[in-house]
Amino acid sequence: MINKVVRVITVASGKGGVGKTTIASNLGVTLQKFFDQNTLIIDANVTTAHLGFFFDLIYFPYSLNDILMEKREFEKSVYLHPFSGVSVLPASTDLQDILKTDLKKFEKVIEKAKKKYDIILIDSAPGFGKEAMTALLACDEVLIVTTPDISSLEDVKRLVYIANQLKKKILGIVINRSKKTLYQLSKKEVEEYVRIKSLVEIPELDIFQKSLFLKTPAVLLEEPYVTETFKFLAARILNLPYSPKYYKSIGEFFKQKFKSFQQDLLLFLKRFR
Fold first, then answer.
1. What's the number of domains the chain is made of?
2. At residue 250, does pLDDT exceed 50?
3. Could you report the per-residue pLDDT of 52-77, keeping only the tens digit for each?
4. Which pTM was predicted?
5. CA torsion angle for 183, 186, 189, 191 (degrees, to 10)?
6. b (16+ CB within 10 A) / e for 28-54
7. Is position 45 within any domain?
8. 231: domain CATH number?
9. Whole-number Cα distances in Å, 191 to 20, 185, 234, 244
10. Distance CA 154, CA 270 (A)
11. In-domain check, residue 270
12. First to last CA, the chain
């Protein structure tokens, strides 16, 4: 009998505000929905948990914290996202849970998850504190998210050094929130600065704010550019060939823009009625 190889990937960043959870949530949905990879996303940022917001998990009875405190079994704390099929293990936002949670048993949670899933994405805390180190120690591979500015890239260098010291495989970097301005570095400059290949560059787009408002990952909002970009990222992680198919015709482009306008109008009316 051949043992299944389960991939445990930590989505990490050297600093906050680079869109790490946005990347983790959309990548997880893409792997599950479009590449048929049984995927679990875990929020390991237990002091400032945000992953649940991307999946409409605002108030939920059980969480990663309950497993770590041995109040709840692993299988009964995981939530299945109905629109994508991806599994989500959120962290609690309750202050008492946060204060009582000990991450010493986190790797045991990963071992249980390995029995059920093909890919486990760990949404790490930013920086280099205890939570971030726990996520790095528990994984086999690291996907680094950064913005194309010097302060973020300096932290990427530190993160790369730590990952190498821990003998973790670095899959590459995701250049996120790119604006193509004079004060941001180009993809080539970023790669030369940190000496790590870039898997994809994702621009700053309003759809990511819209998705958070809707509590739905952006790849499910039928915006071809975003969906195809994440398919390309997922394919690179899976080492599969993939050519993004953005718009088949100019007619499809305008049809999509009109649909997006309708969505925005409905949101506006819903918010201010």
1. 1
2. no
3. 999 999 888 899 999 999 888 999 99
4. 0.90
5. 130
6. bbbbbbbbebebbbbbbbbeebbbbbb
7. yes
8. 3.40.50.300
9. 18, 10, 20, 22
10. 43
11. no
12. 60
In this prediction, residue 170 carries a pLDDT of 98
Using DSSP's 3-state secondary structure scheme, residue 232 falls into helix
Q: Of 20-34, 86-100, 152-166, 191-205, which range is least confident? A: 86-100
The reply to whether 253 falls in a domain is no
Contacts 24+ apart (CB under 8 A), 159-166: 159/12, 159/13, 159/14, 159/128, 160/194, 160/195, 160/196, 162/128, 162/133, 162/136, 163/12, 163/136, 166/136, 166/137
Residue 229 within a domain: yes
Q: Walk across the sheet containing 169-178 and list its strands.
A: 79-80, 87-89, 39-43, 119-123, 7-12, 141-146, 169-178, 198-203
Domain boundaries, position 33: 7-247
Q: Strand ranges (DSSP E) for 167-230?
A: 169-178, 198-203
